[in-house]
Amino acid sequence: MSADRQAPAERPLLEMRDVARFFDVSPPWYQRLFGGGSRRVLRAVDGVDLDLPRGRTLSLVGESGCGKSTLARLAVGLYPLSRGSIRFDGMEMSVRDGSFAERRTRRRIQMIFQDPFASLNPRWRVARIIGEPIRVHEPGTGEAERRSRVRELLEMVGLDADAAARYPHQFSGGQRQRISIARALAARPDLLICDEPTSALDVSVQAQILNLMRELQEELGLTYLFISHDLSAVRFISDYVGVMYLGRLVEWGEAETLFRNPRHPYTRKLLESVPNLAEPGRARTPIAGEVPSPLSPPPGCHFNPRCPLAMAKCRTDTPGMVRTGPGGVRCFAVEEETATA
Ligand SMILES: Nc1ncnc2c1ncn2[C@@H]1O[C@H](COP(=O)(O)OP(=O)(O)OP(=O)(O)O)[C@@H](O)[C@H]1O
Ligand SMILES: [Mg+2]
């Protein structure tokens, strides 16, 4: 891992540059040998630039299959990069040397998943589930100290101390998600990556978990990368929002600005497609057309076949990111509009 020089206070905690991840989804070689198809590469994430400031929440939104989870997994180091770089607190994360420094840095990034039941070991008591990261990352910790830290973590996530003696199946979905959060916090992370953490929960429970996340952020100075299809949850929790379409970031900006004044035609369609709680009577318009296959995305701007503003060059050229205040948008129509304004 290599750190470079810049005052840590002003530097974003997570810096992604031209991040890409391709999957080889070719049929097996013997099938190809006998004429059964050719090599195929799926570009799940293709050239994303994003910064995540410390102590803030950045959410990723976009239709299913646009690459949100893949980007999250890249950030946590679950997949190697196909191109680009990810820096966490100035450290290049693609360098894997197995060193103590590397392990210490990776510990500072933890992930929370959609389904807490699948991610918690059903045969372990909660004390062991939450105690395990402490045992791994702070091996010098004694038994009594570990137990007291588990109690402290349970309290932090709003569970009683007697939860420690029970098994995951003895809890409700919301309580299980609290246990997952306590387990993530046991590693003393700076960055929590939350991939649809509330999608499997009842609406009333979702709000409680989101409130808990906000309280913990305030208390511990945590930074969140949050992924959700629920745009009201995204609006509630985010400082910044990034909109993805077929592996590319098409717009990003401050959450309130993006929700009030979406610039990219895709962002506009995405926001129009959700029911508006403030105006329940208003008809919502689903986005016309299907997301094209990421195996053969349309040339030019990937959104051009579904875009009401598409021009000739949108079908051949890829727009660059144009800055809009603190954010940016990748669209030729917006670029022209900005140039003539
Ligand atoms: N391990 C993998 N091997 C092959 N293809 C993959 C793999 N993981 C993801 N993909 C593909 O990459 C694309 C992006 O998937 P990803 O799961 O990142 O999307 P997503 O935005 O998280 O979608 P959702 O909203 O449904 O969770 C999809 O076309 C998916 O099929
Ligand atoms: Mg996903």
Roughly how many Å apart are the termini? 45 Å
Write down the overall geometry: globular
CATH architecture: 3-Layer(aba) Sandwich
- Small-molecule binders: adenosine-5'-triphosphate, magnesium ion
User: Can you list the strand order of the major beta sheet?
Assistant: 6-7-8-3-9-10-12-11
Helix and strand pattern:
EHEEHEEHEHHHHEHEHEEHHEEH
Sheet-strand content, in percent, reads 15-25%
Number of strands: 12
Give the topology.
Layout: E1 14-24, H1 29-33, E2 41-52, E3 57-61, H2 68-76, E4 83-88, E5 91-92, H3 100-107, E6 109-112, H4 116-119, H5 126-137, H6 143-156, H7 173-186, E7 191-195, H8 203-220, E8 223-227, H9 231-237, E9 240-245, E10 248-254, H10 255-260, H11 265-272, E11 322-324, E12 327-329, H12 332-340
Parallel strand pairs: 3-8, 3-9, 6-7, 7-8
Antiparallel strand pairs: 1-2, 1-4, 4-5, 9-10, 10-12, 11-12
The protein binds adenosine-5'-triphosphate (ATP) and magnesium ion (MG).
Protein name: Dipeptide ABC transporter ATP-binding protein
Domain ABC transporter: 14-271
Family: Belongs to the ABC transporter superfamily.
